[in-house]
Design brief:
22% of the residues lie in helices and 12% in strands. The protein has 83 residues and is an alpha+beta fold. The chain has one domain: Alpha-Beta Plaits. The protein binds iron/sulfur cluster.
Length: 83
Amino acid sequence: MAYVITDACIMDFLCAAECATAAIAPASAADAAVGISHLFINPDECIDCGNCASICPSGAIFAEDELPAEKAHFAAKNKAYFN
Ligand code: SF4
């Protein structure tokens, strides 16, 4: 399992700075590609610590098994970013 970033993300990059495994990308505004609307968590790097979710001011980050049904597709979207 991993944590997942959804469309409530405001791209403040607080979570990326918090993540001990650098699982969150892009890591900064300077690295962000034009056109993305939220950050992404690499499920192969995430260790499920939950720190990112606890500091996210917009409530955009969920444990994969706690994603609301209408946001379930963001799990695949996060994973695909790293493929
Ligand atoms: S749950 Fe922990 S390891 Fe996973 S993305 Fe968030 S801060 Fe990083």
